[in-house]
Amino acid sequence: MNSLLSASLLLVEDMEEMRNIVRRLLGAMGFTNITLARNGEEAWRLIQAQSFDLVLCDWNMPKMSGRELLERVRQEPAYALLPFIMITGENAQSFVKSAIDGGVTDFILKPFTAALLEQRVHHALGLPPVPNP
């Protein structure tokens, strides 16, 4: 994967409005291959069924939390190196530490800007940094 258009992203978010906002932001950045999941359980099935270059995941979700999904991903050798960005409103130090201990690639606190999202996605995918406007 070496271009925006070929990157396969999995966006995991239970809130429809937030899922749509992030999907639109990613689309505006040039990403066209975005798969959506409403919870960690659905995301885990998708990860096992197809290949992704990056997972962007909410923390608090029904059925399986983002932290639980991260743990499953990191325990499976085939996905252990899959870039994983946690997007959450949880800013307590214990949440951040738990995500880092779990092997998260990056952590984005809600609310966030489009520029921050773009910067973190580029970094996680190993793409050149986004130029400052």
Describe this structure in words.
This is CheY-like chemotaxis protein. By secondary structure, the protein is of the alpha/beta class. It contains five helices and five strands. Strands 2-1-3-4-5 form a five-stranded parallel beta sheet, with helices on both faces. The chain is globular, with a radius of gyration of 14 Å.
Q: Concise description?
A:
Keywords: Phosphoprotein. This protein has 133 residues and is an alpha/beta fold.
Portion of residues within helices: 40-55%
CATH-derived topology: Rossmann fold
CATH architecture assignment: 3-Layer(aba) Sandwich
Q: Which overall shape is indicated by the principal axes computed on the Cα atoms?
A: globular
Can you identify the CATH superfamily?
Answer: Response regulator
Which percent band covers the strand fraction? 15-25%
Mean pLDDT: 90
**Can you count the helices?**
5
Organism: Rhodoferax saidenbachensis
Modified residues (4-aspartylphosphate): 58
Domain Response regulatory: 8-125
Protein name: CheY-like chemotaxis protein
List the helices and strands and how they pair.
Blueprint: E1 8-12, H1 16-28, E2 33-37, H2 40-49, E3 54-58, H3 66-75, E4 84-88, H4 93-101, E5 106-109, H5 114-125
Parallel strand pairs: 1-2, 1-3, 3-4, 4-5
Helix pairs in contact: 2-3
Keywords: Phosphoprotein
Pfam families: Response_reg
Domain Response regulatory: 8-125
Which terms would index this structure?
single chain, alpha/beta, CheY-like chemotaxis protein, Sig_transdc_resp-reg_receiver, phosphoprotein
